[in-house]
Amino acid sequence: MPYTETNFLVDHTNITDTINRLWWSVDRQDWDAILKRVFAEDITADYTALFGGQPEEVKATKQVAVFKGLLEALDSAQHANMTVLVDLPQADEDASPPTEVKANCNSVTSLVRKSAEGGPISNGGGYYDYVLIRDTSVSKGQNPWRIKYMKAYFSWITGNQHVLPGVKE
């Protein structure tokens, strides 16, 4: 099957939607949406810039449990992603649709924990690198793109960086 301009545009939109849906769902604590529509079965989430340690590949359910534990400690959170760049091949009648792509986006995050010592608000900005895979088990007409790798890079943090428990100095 050739990779047409329509395929390119649909893939680009679906990949952008998957990235945006991740953070929309995290902020609303819609963990089922992340498991069903965002993450691949296995995921590597690299937050070493924020928490230290080493990245590891885990089941999506474990990564969702990590997010859930962090978000339950907060009163509210808002992740705003912008400038999503998707590294898709251009349409080509002789090319097959891609099965894996890289993407990036800028991100600004506001976190609130009213009981945090040192102040209730933390704001930060940076960007994410992603690798997404096409899940061939997804029903036709549904978004097949799933995140299998994500890495956070932090450019700045203002306010109380300890609003989120476990952040390294």
UniProtKB/TrEMBL annotation:
It holds the Pfam family SnoaL_4. Residues 10-151 form the SnoaL-like domain. Gene3D superfamilies: 3.10.450.50. Transmembrane segments: none annotated. This is SnoaL-like domain-containing protein. The lineage of its organism: Eukaryota, Fungi, Dikarya, Basidiomycota, Agaricomycotina.
